[in-house]
Amino acid sequence: MFGHIVAFKQFRPSQGIWGSKWAGLDNFKFFFSSDDWIHVTVNTLFLNSMFIFFTLGIALILAIFLNEIRYALYKRLAQSVIFLPYFVSWLVVSFMTYAVFNTSDGILNKLLNAMGEGSYNWYGNANLWPYILTALFVWKMSGYVTIIFFSAITAISSEYYESATLDGAGRFQQILHITLPLLRPTLVVLLLLQIGRIFYGDFGMIYGIIGDNPILIPKTDVIDTYSFRALRSLGNFSMAGSVVLYQAVMGLITILFFNWIARKIDRESSLF
Amino acid sequence: MAFSNRLFSVAVYSFIAFFVVICAVPFWMVVVDSFASESSLQTAGYQLFPSEFSTYAYQYLFQGSQLWRSYSVTLVVTVVGTALSLLITSTMAYVMAHKKAKFGGLLSFMTYFTMIFGSGMVGFYILVAIWLGLKDSIWSMILPYLLNPFYAFILVAFYRTIPYEVNEAATIDGANEFTTFFRIIWPMTVPALATITLFYALQYWNDWYLAIMFVDNYHLHPLQIMIRQLIANMNMQSYLQGGNVSFDKPLPVKGVQLATVCVTIGPIILLYPFVQKYFVKGLTIGAVKG
């Protein structure tokens, strides 16, 4: 909390927090006077919404489908492989991404060449990257969420399904009318946890994969990478501090707002 | 009806199979290509079935000093970090869950509060780099992760399931607080502790945020940062060899990158079959507690 004071100072490491001059709101003026703050806010919100929507959606489908599989070995193996990407760091993912997408010898371009198409410069088109990043996020994280959903599904009493079968419901109808409604609380909790952090970009991911690539930064820079660059590359503590404080305030408002909404809809599913 | 059920089954099996292939292919590619010869990597690019086998990239990597340095940094950070965080998290959670301990509520509040309203990156940087003076120190990669509030609360929930009579019985039998905790409470919570230990170990092994924030000295680069340096491709030869560059051996650029990634994810993949169930258990606890 205390560190936020830096945002109102002209911080120099040699003078310490108290020794540095007060700067009033100058740091904020600097941040808000350029268009950067709009870009990074929009990017953060857009990327995180895509991540949340697709990861939860695909994990839900995966968990339900896994539950439909009757061969135990296939089920266990599939579960393990889907969970595996969660265990490697974003830098490793970044390397794999490069091996797939790079122009001269990436697997994707080799595939395109084999089909008679020309090579495409994936790293040259910033507009594609929000979608590529979403795909990568789904690749890495959906296994994690799948396991949460899957354990929630296995906790559902089998009596529901038995009586539904007696009533002549098909498997698809059982999913629609039993599994999905009973998964709703889990889904709501996960959704709330994620939305509460929607102003916090995934630094490890974005900086690991995009790094300082100037072509891709306009479409992929999030608040966290922006303030990191202000701090570590420019060495401007106070400017980074004002960005971080802006993020913390927005994040707090989001949490309170969505918690309030959750309590309106369903008292049980609010976080506090 | 039967037909639509069968159609549904086909959709289920193929969707899962598709996703499994997507998840597995990058791993396959990295491992297999690290054993491909550099010339085949240069001409044909990354492939799923390389034509020429070679271990040259590994030989080159192992003979340089940077890999061993980075490996020891990562190992030390992981082992020391995991051990310390297990100790701190479990003792902290025990106090928060303890009925008779003072300030338990205050501790919980402080843990929860800082989990939601941290000081942000800048305050964190000033604290670690300037006040604690840990810049370019191995402790800067260990200390900040010692207490993960989320794991602490999982443990608190776990300790609360142990009836307080256990403590009373131990006290009557003459055990002091330390004996009670380490000899009686710890063994009762082994499943939860194992899960948390593994989550911490994974976090330390995969972390590079702290390293990129606080460590500029390449002697202290962990494996993850080494991968990053190799991708950035600056002065790769002298970086790997640690100063004394021998130009008689050509540098297998791509091979070395692939081989470094493999030795980094190698331990995880080898241990994965044995530890996966603990991670699944950890997620399940988290899901139940919300």
From TrEMBL, chain B:
Family membership noted in the UniProt record: Belongs to the binding-protein-dependent transport system permease family.
Domain ABC transmembrane type-1: 71-275
Top-level division of the source organism's lineage: Bacteria
PROSITE patterns: ABC_TM1
Subcellular location: Cell membrane
Protein name: Carbohydrate ABC transporter permease
Topological type in the membrane: Multi-pass membrane protein
